[in-house]
Amino acid sequence: ILFSLVSRNLRHLRRAPPHARSPSLQSFPPIGGTESGARAPVTSIPDSRGGRGENARARAARRATSPALHQPHAPSAAEVAEPIDGDAEKPRLLLAVTSQLFICTVPPATLGTASNPGRGWRRRGGPSALRDVCGPAPAARLPPEALGSGQRKRVSQPVAVRLPASRRSPCSASSSSFPIQRLAGVVVLLRPQPPEQHGKCGGGSRVQHSPGHRLLQGKVVTKEKIQEAKEVYREHFQDDVFNETGWNYILEKYEGCLPIEVKAVPEGSVVPRGNVLFTVENTDPDCYWLTNWIETILVQSWYPITVATNSREQKKILAKYLLETSGSLEGLEYKLHDFGYRGVSSQETAGIGASAHLVNFKGTDTVAGIGLIKKYYGTKDPVPGHSVPAAEHSTITAWGKDHEKDAFEHIVTQFSSVPVSVVSDSYDIYNACEKIWGEDLRHLIESRSAEAPLIIRPDSGNPLDTVLKVLEILGRKFPITENEKGYKLLPPYLRIIQGDGVDINTLQEMVEGMKQNKWSIENISFGSGGALLQKITRDLLNCSFKCSYVVTNGLGVNVFKDPVADPNKRSKKGRLSLHRTPDGDFVTLEEGKGDLEEYGQDLLHTVFKNGIVTKSYSFDEVRKNAQLKNSELTEASH
Description:
By secondary structure, this protein is α+β, with helices and mostly antiparallel strands. Among the domains are: about 220-255, no CATH class; about 260-305 and about 540-635, no CATH class; about 305-535, Aldolase class I (TIM Barrel), CATH 3.20.20. It is built from 18 helices and 20 strands. It is elongated.
């Protein structure tokens, strides 16, 4: 059975109205603090006298009856930088990005924690003989390796994507809904196996030295896992549906390695929608049921795909306006900063989402992504992302309302030789710019260098109105110049960063408003938090993973779906391949037509086969593949 993933039409990425407030800038999340997304410390409970004088016995008794009041463990710096568990089943990452076309990652066959397929909880179509053997949807049967040590409770719950008919286009298949936009980036969550578990199919230096060992790599099926899965599913389904015979066959014949082959385009490749991105096929006829196990974990890739797509689309907007208002792309990679650490659902989410954004930009406060990339990808640079020292509201308000100037002065003096960002709206952003920065502390600002500017951060109000008014005030208080394009420019020691209410809609509005008011985009950078890493769903982008080819009794059958109520959901059929036309465009050939020499080489290459990851990409390669093309720098934003 062959499953293939093909991009489908997307729902327009831009959404209105703009999201509510984004998290404020924080240069490095405090260890154990709520700003970092880590566990927040709980204040100890006073005793009956109003103090904290409890003896050990009383404390023990109280804690025994009030477990919720325990002081949680404050994570170390290493835990904050690397939010994933440190065991052998630790999730790993494979990355790519997105935009006006499809940026696709090569997800080398990841077979992951099982999921409740939600609306997809039903028997798949296809030959009745296969349907009878398979029983419930394969995605409903948890792979035994998903229940291994340390993974018993890690179960995700993706749901099927359903877009309005007007938003869908014909697509091909594969057993996983793979969300993709006009451009799609794919980040795949993977889990390594320790070397001693690899067995024969998992050995080899090329695999060991790859950026990350994949979840499917090596010996992933064991007798203990099969037995545990059997017991769980007997109770879960109230029926004996678990394919114990099939898993024992894999354990005995392949020493626990999975007989599957995955072919994919290079990670980070930019491929137009409607084309196949990767295919999955079993290499043993007796394991025809195994291909659909890939669906569940690949569906989870919707999150990094969407983050990377959204991020790259915003990069196109910024590139366009930066060129128009300055004539240069200098500083583009730092124009959109990731403020999303505290706004996401988990440490894992922070690491994966931040990594997806870093494909396109180098500015981030979500340090979890840096650790993830360094550990599982590797880059030529010491770190793939950077930030600057920055104030947040508590570092201002702790001084008291009457001492805001003192707080500002302390911060800029403390960080006099490096860029420093100071949130300035704790009380009155306009007074801060006019009186404090523009008069009281002007001498300190003017003494700074272009390499160590003061970055003023508004953090409330209508984003466009606030940015324009702040620029207007600063333009009166400090000497401005005009660049070669005729746009106004603040002195090099002064810049602003807008970190509130920034999404793809408001970003477009702000840069357009600045252009109309003759302000260069050189003056500003943006920070996005919840809108970048959290305010997204799997329905925002769309892709399909369906069965396209089956061999039954030695005969190949082209398989596809063609719902009478929705022609746009018709899937591609047969063996699929990806090619380039003489004009350089991409085309997907169905029904095995790509075997003909006249169409040239198939662009899908084997990345995983029978337990071995055969191809890996460094983070630098992914970034290179995802670069904006010259044609994208001049086209309209949307």
